[in-house]
Amino acid sequence: MSSMDEGYGPTWDSDDEYDNFIRKMNPPRIVIDNESSAEATIVRVDSANEYGILLEVIQVMIDLNLVIGKAYITSDGGWFMDVFNVTDKEGKKIKDEETLAQIEDYIRKSLGADSRYIPSRRRSVGVAAAADHNVIELMGTDRPGLLSEVSAVLASLKCNVVSAEIWTHKTRAAAVMRVTDEDTGLAVTDAERLERIRERLSYLLRGGDLSRGAAMAVSSGTATTHTERRLHQMMLDDGNYEQLQRQAPEQSQRPNVTVRNWNDKDYSVVTIRCKDRSKLLFDTVCTLTDLQYVVFHANIDAKDNQAYQEFYVRHVNGSPMNTETERLRVIQCLEAAIERRVSEVTMPFTCLKLHYQICKTTSHAA
């Protein structure tokens, strides 16, 4: 913070400094209610509002393996207010006191003054070094045996695959892999060796589709994006959603996504009806956030294996969707986000080949 400005109050050196001040003056309030509902634990979150905060809260709940059955969201003005009805994966209320304390603590830390939502860099494919491992991002044309070939290349370069998450959708495959040096068990730091990894994997991923091949890049620093969010970003940047037009499944199998404008309030209303599944709300909110839309109000309900989601949104520039092209892009991106999740497990190297085969089968059956 800079000095006082002629007695009228503080001036700010950056938006980050001002936002941190607002957070400290208005710390998040989390209330967990296990009495009001016989079927679910109710989590209420009140916080100073900012872009991306809804995704932060949902991401914490997903990482704690909570199932969100209902949610009511409002964030008009400078304050964010949310009510979530959550259960465990077996559909039961959360009664364990340690888990309840974790929920409150993790949400508070996620929204506190020391944590700020930062949209990640939009690398299409890359290798990022952390202290104890490298994160390798792969985006390329899907084909039988691709993951086995990638694993063979890494093994030949004396890299050990610690874990990986792989999504395939239509003709494209995306993966986030964590690898270590075979000899040291730590991250590969030698620049020449990293360059060889980039060259070999880029060549492999190009396959016969040179126009949509992969390019490797190295980024410094230890910060990494949430793996599943990163997979969404990679496929979004790759234009994966555009293939829905060329390879559309039967209409009855597709999620029902509509967008209409509520002109009196300058909102675009996004409505989703589809089969319910794990992490559906995370996937849709993640997509809206990465498309730079702000959710001002939302009503979420999942019942009898069917999901209903209604979002009242504006672009970060404050406008609703003004063109048919913009509306169609949002619909296509949400449809793709709903359809493309085929794996949710981070696995050791020994499971990779079997998991890839399972992913392929699931993707082709979708």
Quick gist of this model?
Residues 42-123, 135-212 form the ACT domain. By secondary structure, this protein is of the alpha+beta class.
Structure, explained:
There is one protein chain. By secondary structure, this protein is of the alpha+beta class. Helix content is 33%, strand content 28%. The protein has ten helices and 13 strands. The chain has helices spanning 15-25, 53-63, 97-111, 146-156, 191-206, 227-237, 243-246, 280-290, 324-340, 352-365, and strands at residues 29-33, 41-48, 67-74, 79-87, 126-129, 134-141, 159-169, 172-181, 218-219, 256-262, 267-275, 293-303, 306-315. The strands form two sheets. The chain has an eight-stranded antiparallel β-sheet with strand order 1-2-4-3-12-13-11-10. The longest helix has 17 residues, at 324-340. The radius of gyration is 22 Å and the shape is globular. It starts with 14 loop residues before the first helix and ends with a helix. Residues 1-10, 115-125, 213-223 and 343-366 have low confidence and may be disordered.
